[in-house]
Amino acid sequence: MDEMIEFLHKGPLAPLKKWGTKYSIWPTHLVTACCGVELAHAFASGYDGERLGVLNFGMARQTNCIVVEGAITRKMARALKITYEQMPDPKFVIVMGVCGIKGGLFWNGYNMVKPFEVVPVKYYAPGCPPTPESLLRCFRALQNEIDTGEPRNTIVYPTVREAVEEGKKKKRPKKVPPPPKYVASNPSVVVDVPREDGWPGGKEIVAKLSEVLGELGERITITGRNKVAVRVSRDNFVEAARKLLEAGLDHIKSVNVIDVPHEGKFIVEYVASSYLNPEFTPLLVTMISEIDRNDPVFPSLIDVWPAADYLERELHDLFGVWFEGNPWMGRKFLLAPDTPETPLRKDFKLQDDVYIGGE
Length: 359
Ligand code: SF4
Prior knowledge:
Pfam families: Complex1_30kDa, Oxidored_q6. It is an enzyme of class 1 (oxidoreductase). Residues 35-141 form the NADH:ubiquinone oxidoreductase-like 20kDa subunit domain. By secondary structure, the chain is of the alpha/beta class. It has two domains: 2-148, Rossmann fold, CATH 3.40.50; 202-324, 2-Layer Sandwich (Beta Polymerase, domain 2). 27% of the residues lie in helices and 17% in strands. The chain is built from nine helices and eleven strands. The protein has helices at 2-10, 14-22, 35-43, 74-86, 98-102, 132-148, 202-213, 237-247, 308-319; strands spanning 27-30, 65-69, 92-96, 123-125, 219-224, 227-231, 251-260, 265-273, 284-292, 297-299, 322-324. A five-stranded mixed β-sheet has the order 5-6-9-8-7, with helices on one face. A four-stranded parallel β-sheet has the order 1-2-3-4, with helices on both faces. A hairpin with a 2-residue loop joins strand 5 and strand 6 (227-231). The protein binds iron/sulfur cluster. Residues 33-35, 70-71, 97-99, 104-105, 128-129 line the site of iron/sulfur cluster.
């Protein structure tokens, strides 16, 4: 068998195989987000991507390429990995949109996964959304790579011409970094994953937060550059928030609820930052707590950070968490009055459609 594969790769038929692969790129597209519209655009009559030998398929087992169309969440990461593993070799991954590169609009979302941490990515089409031209450019680059075996950038960036002072050595032009090829064995689905690399001031910030919170901060973890997660119990949450406010974290960026039905809990997150204290300005501090899913009552933080008000109202609508102290509880805020309750809980089921007429 190995000999036959070797023959196919290196024997007299190798150019034919290469030519066949080059013009038989069949992507299974993962329409994970709004970038999918631009993929449709690239293959509609205007750009007609099919003329390049690229034909979108719905079935993973007959395809050799995945186009990840935008954001990948933790839930989707598993589907991405499974789809990739079902595909026959040789296989390639192209990622569309800034959401798939660094999180894009959802850069601080607890649920974002970078596709390159799950599967090896060949080419990125940047933009929000990227243009159909840039997606087609990725396919052309991939075809060139199949042809020549050389990965090449699709764009040649101009290098900055600096004036060379006399007697000084001329600097070499900087190269554009290649895409990362790190593949995680399993997509991570935990909330505060420690990632300390590349943030020299991180440890001092953790020490400072430990000093501010004392025993209220049960665990403080660096989760990325300028990102820290603090575990606080439900009963100590308001007091801990006040201490952070006094220390200079003067506003709230977002409030999230994560439904974990198999463990019978909700995870509640408040992401705080600072406009006025330069020490904390780039920092995002996520306070995390867990509550019982059957009795989802949590203390409101509107007296500490008033901007939490609308976010708590939304989460009350969507998950049914009761923020004690927020006067809006018990009413609908975003949803129409006849909308079913708590539509973002994972066990929420849409009502069956009723068809009228016909057997
Ligand atoms: S990059 Fe823009 S268009 Fe693409 S998924 Fe993200 S938000 Fe949507």
